[in-house]
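LOG
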Amino acid sequence: MGLTLTEKILKAHLVDGEMVKGQEIGIRIDQTLTQDATGTMAYLEFEAMGVPRVKTERSVAYIDHNTLQNGFENADDHRFIGSVAKKHGIYFSRPGNGICHQVHLERFGIPGKTLIGSDSHTPTGGGIGMIAIGAGGLDVAVAMGGGAYYITCPKVVKVELTGKLPSWVAAKDVILEVLKRMSVKGGVGKVIEYCGEGVKTLSVPERATITNMGAELGATTSIFPSDEITREFLKAQQREDVWTELSADADAVYDEEITINLSELQPLAACPHSPDNVKSVQEIGKIKIDQVCIGSCTNSSLLDMLKVAHILKGRTVHPDVSLSIAPGSKQVLNMLAENGALSIMIDAGARILESACGPCIGMGQSPNSKGISLRTFNRNFEGRSGTKDGQIYLVSPEVAAASAITGVFSDPRDLGDMPEFKLPDVFKINDNMITLPASEEEMDSVEILRGPNIKPFPETSPLDASIDAGVSLKVGDNITTDHIMPAGAKILPLRSNIPAISQHCFTICDEQFPTRAKEMGKSIIVGGSNYGQGSSREHAALAPLYLGIKAVLVKSFARIHRANLINAGILPLTFVNEADYDTISQGDQLVLDNVRADIEAGKSELTVVNKTTGKEIPVLCELSGRTKDIILAGGLLDYTRESMK
């Protein structure tokens, strides 16, 4: 029986466990990346391990999230990350060099390699044939120190692509179609592997758009084969030497199969407030819009920008619309400037932003009250834009640009014939904004530069013998990490200061939560299904840890957030009977007697007693030998320290 491409790469990197679906495996990590919103904490954790120099083939620290420097905090974080990178063997991509996933695809990604990054959209690397996975910062720190990265051995879903995209239908429409079919929960525990004749019609940037937004499926990652199209892209980046041909065996067996005829697709949009709330642009109709934002790690490639420039050429942005455009990297911005496309955008009335994440994470460009904003981004969670009642639609660059001109939701197919857009034979290569690390001989002389906003990792402690705590918060289904730990220009600068950022924890749901949780001393959070979907930000676990959260009891967890809770030493519990969710109220007192002894004994089914109602509630706490030991130790940092002695 043949192997899928996913299985081939995982098997080649397996260092712990067996390739059995549903069981935990440890894999060797070749590359890591961090971004500045998660990087400061990741490097504080790396320092705490006492490893002098990273042990990966390549680790890169990017500055792309907190580039809006409206105080000293972000600048101090950038300086800290730069000094840590120089000292410990990490490449440093300076502010303005571009979005981590776009730059990594251009300059560092290698087919067949493994990559984990402290950003949930790390699967962008799957567009070049990598197993690229989003993870918490602590997991990345451990990998930089030479440790394995642990995942549940995934199921593999085959997405068979046939046909060819019609004019003005985009790669964004492909992943929106997948989301429409599978939902934001449909990819949990799975890798999405793209195959078929239709793959040959998609460029690497188009493939990367699809794998990038596969994160919204809840999938472990997504991947395309590495073929001649991949080779051409790497050759144009002057990196052809790293190319390897990779594909699934002809007789590979998949756990699920989906077929998408690219020829039958039409322009789509994800409607407020979920990436899987997908409708066709025609179905939505010509509703008036207020704002268009083009960019993000999903759609900021040179190819995307050239299509936008073509649509804008000789036209003017509608007077009722604000259009902003953020090229994904310095390379893209340089090439737009040289070929005249940038001038076209400016002539049309676009506002050009720096090559960074920007509006995608609420860093500027918040829409007006109740404003309808079309964005080429990957998430449209309520309030993520910075405007609580903003109506955010996720669309392709083609739909975005066409709509910016007309002032209403528009189908780009009305523009007539689409010219052929080709990637250049040679990209402009200038890596002068990537700072190389110091040599091993020089590293000891490098000083780590810390600002006053940088605080240490929160205190942890081994799992208590029993947990007797009140419910400080009860929330519903599809709670995102944006709900738990909001982003935006006000809060992101506090990412290196857990005591300060914890004051914003869950305030989108309940403004009194931080104060109440701190006053309770220790408490439990109760939630619904798909709890913790979205960003990989470990702050959504570290802030609750600081506020005294001992356990989180929900119907189901998103993969990365559950791992982050374990890493923080917070007990992840799920209901055996989901109906028991309705029997618990905020303020109830819950008890897990002898929980430490039960975990030590390897019990997966525990009993929660609701002292307020007297009801006994069976719950699951499914931990492997390794994750069990992490919980008992009080978190991954303590566990790693002990393991390294």
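LOG (cont.) second protein
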Amino acid sequence: MTEISSLESRIDEIINDLQGICSQHGLANQASEERIVTTIFLYKFLNDKFMHSIKEFARSIGVDYKTILANQNDELDAFYDTYSGNVAFGEEDTIEALMQQVADTKFYEKFDAALDRISTNPRNENFNIETADGTRKKLFEAISGEVESQSKNNFAKRIFATIAQERFDFSGAFKNNFDFYSRIFEHLIKNYNVASGTYAEYFTPQAISKIIAEILVGMSEKIQASEIYDPSAGSGSLILHLANELGSEDNISRAIVYTQDISNKSSRFLRINLLLNGLTDSLHNVIQGDTLLHPAHYVIEHEQTSGLKKFDYIVSNPPFKTDFSSTRDEIENNWGEVKDANGLKRFFAGIPSVPKKKKESMGIYLMFIQHIIFSLKENGKAAIVVPTGFLTAQNGIEYTIREYLIENRLLKGVISMPSNIFANTGTNVSVLFIEKTNETNEVMLIDASKLGSKVKEGKNQKTALSPEEGKLIISTFISKKEEKDFAIKVSFEQIENKKYSFSAGQYFEIVIEHIDITPEEFQSKLATFEQEYSALIEEGKELDKQILDQLKTLHLVN
């Protein structure tokens, strides 16, 4: 077994044990189970990383790490300064210290207090999350409140018995790369299934995130030291793949991450994902709130312009349809006429009306597309997952957005993905690639709908792209290589003539095959067709006769 496989196996064991403890305390398949499992797993991860880091620091200066922790002197301050991005612990809050107090009859209170101190550690203010209204939520919250009073201590002790075991060798884990941590995160959130949903609601498949990130960065010159943004971030798969692609092999912190998502759960998952990947400097940019009504990231407040921050790269897999009728008019009143410094309205193509029936069918993704275009810097790039129906809609906001992208020469390309590429939706999806400095008259259209193979994902069936298929899509897009019935380059004028259709299939050449045959061969084939057709006619007449004969035998039964 490889080192990575061994680590993943130990992760499996820890998660399964934690779920088992929750189940035995009546928390199985409840929202509290998911919160406890992810909280304790992250506590274990950060603790082991803290201990690994302080031992490494102690070796570098020739001192025993216990001496540094015990003395609380300048050496400890130097450690915190050196590892500020990864440290949220005081010595008293480590697993090692708390294990000495497990025999206490109120051990659960000590554990809850430790979790609170980690979240409010003055040495690192990144370990809580800001919401759109300016309040902050702690990284960790007390867990004993989820169980009955008489079970609190037993619950806390059993958890500690699980996480104190030496199943994590993080001296190896911390030297692994982004892909490893992506697998840890995917495994972590796939291993719960609570009343409020499954992991697929918060997670863009790794293969799709990788394709989007590599194309977005590789399709033209890379923007260095980038500010990157996802206005519907979910658990962060898209934005972290982009951050990794923009960084060097050893360091992905050069990209500063900004996100917003309306879901408290998704925002918490995103914090975990950032922490696993060492992007603690961006934690304070993770905002929970309604992006459309209360966008969180501002540069300035100004009477004439929005003051909204603009970004180098934007990625988004927004919700496609949802009922936002309760905020629709407020969005229009607050933002309907707001423009940027160049005179572009934030919602230039309009805001969907509230349907009389099926309010849940409101096209909220259309609002996100407009917000993303509005939020791009003058040299910015974006990739947006959209329902494939958006590519060919003949009227409405969809048509207006496509017209704007073409008339302003912003569209770089479109990829239509296979059906069921997401485990939780059968909606066919495509990806729009936008570049504000697109200097060519070429748009790359790819139809990847025939790629992939069917796999089982829980109770659902989805389509999975192989690594080779992913590389094919990426290389074809970036190299602008045309391939029959798969990829084609078209001009903006061609798209205009096709009523702004972004569907690759409408531009593929229709080829009619011709076969050269002699007059004698033609007559022979024609004679054969005539004989076969005559035989079918006779067979039909016989069948008609049989039916009539059967009808004559029918009689009324009293």
